[in-house]
Amino acid sequence: MANYTTTTHRPSSTNSPPPPPGHDTKPDDPTRKNIYTLNFSWPFNIPSTPESAAIRIVKNLANFSLYYAIFVWTVLFIALIPKRKVSVIYLVAMTEITLLYFLLMRSFAVLHKMIDKRFVLFLLFIVTAVEMILTRAAIHLFIVLGATVPLIVVHAVLSKGEDVFVNKEDGEMVRLVVNEKLGDDHAENLV
């Protein structure tokens, strides 16, 4: 009987696909520098001078004012829940009035030009503070302000706001990755 076997021969080296067009197959030239490097930025650093700290506070208060107000409101709300139920109701009512004011401002652009937003918010803060005093929750208000304002100031001093922007599609805060050219001075951002 005859034994018929087949043998397949495989090449010893595999064929790799050709490189994409425009791709250099030569090794990198040692005299050639990369133009860009990727640096991840840390969102906090200590300002170099008191002037830069003051500028940073002003910018961060403008950029993060809504977040700071929500932080203070949340802490005040939590502090009032156990003993001051009437004060909580007044606080929520003032929050609703503020929300309605902002919806009104968004609806009527003329109102936005006539009345300054900061003035109205200051008036609403004064009315809220008077309500807290009349409902005997002033001690809660002052303790909350005494505890949260230093935290807000520390955040405003240490937070670098240059590399933060609001993503228009999602409406969220996004931190950028900074590209810097080599050869430039890597001076600290003062602000």
UniProtKB/TrEMBL annotation:
Low complexity bias spans: 1-15
Residues covered by region (Disordered): 1-28
InterPro entries documented for this protein: Prenylated_rab_accept_PRA1
Broad class of where this protein is predominantly found: membrane
Localisation: Membrane
Bilayer topology annotation: Multi-pass membrane protein
Domain of life assignment: Eukaryota
GO biological process per UniProt: vesicle-mediated transport
Keyword Membrane: yes
Pfam families in the record: PRA1 (PF03208)
A GO CC term assigned to this protein in UniProt: membrane
Keywords attached to this entry: Membrane, Transmembrane, Transmembrane helix, Transport
Transmembrane segments: 61-81, 87-105, 117-134, 140-158
Sequence similarity: Belongs to the PRA1 family.
Function: May be involved in both secretory and endocytic intracellular trafficking in the endosomal/prevacuolar compartments.
Entry protein name: PRA1 family protein
The organism of origin for this protein: Buddleja alternifolia
Lineage, opening ranks: Eukaryota, Viridiplantae, Streptophyta, Embryophyta, Tracheophyta
